[in-house]
């Protein structure tokens, strides 16, 4: 009975770690992906959703029948909604209308009170994060605030990082991860550094984000754009403050898509765009470090959540991006 999960809550975390054969062979390193698409809600954000709700309960601000509001690119909203359903809470999710139709449909399917808003930069009062904060105040609800709520990164410090350490037997030399809230990178970074101070923590950043420049030279200037969802920032979220980051790499969409398609057609592993960024970054770091090292990265969610974009030749051609070679 020790292997039986206690409902949805008990099934979150303890995801497999997968050796990525082609990336490993190409670099002479062990490149391993933490398969967060195996989580019940289909993404790494199940961990943050559970941690944020448990933290609100512990602080006494979320009680039976209560409501939690969050602004999200989609996956955290899915995680929060499913956990809220399991624990008897209501969820209100604010999301930019530019996110994939699959995520929009899924949120509605699982019972979220979904509010779509125009996509606006963080400095604009109409940005989805600000809208969610104001809505929580109006409803007298709990605002999840995943970007600045440190329960987010603590979840990864307490679960994801130790899982990686145990699954690799402590043989981990570097960890690469893209950032939306920064919770995964920071939490895993803290956990791994506490066990092995020399481990390299590398932020993977898409075009259109300022975090690469922030790590490299303290400059948050944003240039370019990306079709990836849920990663990249024009500010430093609270979860990234004080995070033990050693370096950053910038990954353009074609490089990320190459890994998404390669994993799909050659290894049967279906991932979204952020995982493509993460794997591309792991390959870069592996080549810099040289053969014989172990690099771990995050396979944040599955490709089905982005079928209408990443696997849509018409959409990709409109962005001058490569299409899946089999389509």
Which residue ranges are poorly predicted, with pLDDT under 50 across at least 5 consecutive positions?
none
Number of helices, counting only DSSP H or I runs of 4 residues or more: 13
Strand order in the largest sheet: 1-2-10-7-8-9
Overall residue-averaged pLDDT value: 97
Seen as an oligomer or otherwise, the chain set is single chain
What structural class do you assign from the helix and strand content? alpha/beta
Q: Tell me, what's the shape?
A: globular
Order of helices and strands: HEHEHEHEHEHEHEHEHEHHEHH
- Proportion of residues in β-strands: 15-25%
What summary fits the major beta sheet? Answer: 6 strands, mixed
Estimated helix fraction? 40-55%
**How many strands appear in the DSSP assignment?**
10
Q: C-alpha Rg, in Å?
A: 19 Å
Q: Give the end-to-end Cα distance, rounded to a whole number of Å.
A: 45 Å
